[in-house]
Amino acid sequence: MDYILLIIGFVLLIKGADFFVEGASELAALMRIPPILIGLTIVAFGTSAPEAAVSISAALYGSGDIAVGNVVGSNIVNITLIIGVASLLAPLKVERQTIRKEIPFALLASLAFLILASDTRLNSAGQSLLDRSDGLILLLLFAVFLYYIYEAARNSRENMDGQYPRPDPRALGRYVAFTIGGMLGIIFGGDLVVDSAVRIAFRLGMSETLVGLTIVAFGTSLPELITSVTAGLRKKSDIALGNIIGSNIFNIFFVLGAASVISPLKVDARVFTDSLVMIAATLILLIFSGTGMKIGRREGITLTAAYILYLIFILIRN
Prior knowledge:
The protein contains 13 helices and 4 strands.
């Protein structure tokens, strides 16, 4: 039965991503909003639903390590493995605004987390915590990000005519249905894949640590992976990149912000190293994006190899 559920989950993921990307890109054109902004918001927030569910639930049950590790690990997977695989299949074009504003926003999010979570190093505290005041700071920064998106969308409308094909407004209901239905398919498909794969792995004799570091950690990033790869193959590079960048910003500012307001989150000392990896990965993405205004197959190989090395590192460390 688990194998059947695994197959059903992958089908939901793949078809859901297909409908989601099509609906979101058409909505962007209909509303005269650049697809990169749709990727940064609707697509990114939708594909980050698993991270939000896991981290907020973990906060409610007092498992801060899971909440923080889930977000940091997912962000590293997003930048290295997912962008790497997507660019291997189809080179991703990068808009100038993405280099100048959106990726630096993701870098700001990573740096903010590093500073707020480094109590033992910066304040000589006995334990590192993301407390409620830290959570409010992260949520405030999330509000600033949303304001930037609002202003960018409002200003872009004046310059959108002729840049993107205008779809038939009468099809608005169909585009909304595609977007919502695709998002639900991605969320439920991801849950089915993770749950069934974990049960199969245990039956095959895999250890709990190995399952947690591979299947569970990778599983919450499956929506981003399928959506970005689908968008890349459909020549929607702006949605593919916007999805990843927006997801990383959303994960830190909103998910960790909301989770730490609900309950202070304990930050494991080892996460300090992981946060440095997250910052380094974001800087590498910024550098790659600025060389030739695209992320090609050479950069994709480098990013994918970086994830493999990181995975080996955490397996040895743990």
